[in-house]
Amino acid sequence: xxxxxxxxxxxxxxxxxxxxxxxxxxxxxxxxxxxxxxxxxxxxxxxxxxxxxxxxxxxxxxxxxxxxxxxxxxxxxxxxxxxxxxxxxxxxxxxxxxxxxxxxxxxxxxxxxxxxxxxxxxxxxxxxxxxxxxxxxxxxxxxxxxxxxxxxxxxxxxxxxxxxxxxxxxxxxxxxxxxxxxxxxxxxxxxxxxxxxxxxxxxxxxxxxxxxxxxxxxxxxxxxxxxxxxxxx
Length: 233
Known about the structure:
- There is one protein chain.
- By secondary structure, this protein is α/β, with parallel strands linked by helices.
- 40% of the residues lie in helices and 23% in strands.
- The chain contains eight helices and 13 strands.
- It has helices at residues 11-21, 34-41, 60-70, 84-92, 105-124, 156-167, 175-183, 193-205, and strands spanning 3-7, 27-31, 48-52, 75-80, 97-101, 130-133, 136-139, 144-147, 150-152, 172-174, 215-218, 222-225, 231-232.
- The radius of gyration is 18 Å and the shape is globular.
């Protein structure tokens, strides 16, 4: 049974999520304080964290920042409806996904299942082959990325976005393709998730050795990972 940690100071919402998620096959624990929630999230006993932004003790951003220093546990942020800045900041800080409040528990369940399924599949992959494009090596089984001999720290969702871009290096990949294959949902022009995750990858990998941007935004179409050298897969 997969364990979900809900960190939210809204006790009624926590009770609702517990009542909804447990019959769906999840073990759920709720914490109403940011500091205590961080301690629980770092315990290594949970598979995913549902994290609200407005929390006593430490706010959700502070919890996420501390969590990402040492852990890659999947995180779904809960944000106030209409607060686009909060969603973008959460994704930039390493959240895997977000949901604006109020939300349908069925939608949260679908997001949780999608993230956990991708995480499960990644750990079950037996192929240790390496996908190499230029100065970047992506190791499928170990879920690691090396650039010019240096190990890069990517979240699980960032790894999957990069994997898709490298597999299609030299070809434009649409936002719709990226959303469907990686996030397992249709792309919406009002959803900045794809753009922010790609931006995070771009910042972490930096430009090509020649100084050129390695992931180009093709206006109105999508993204292109620049193919400069031979590729080995």
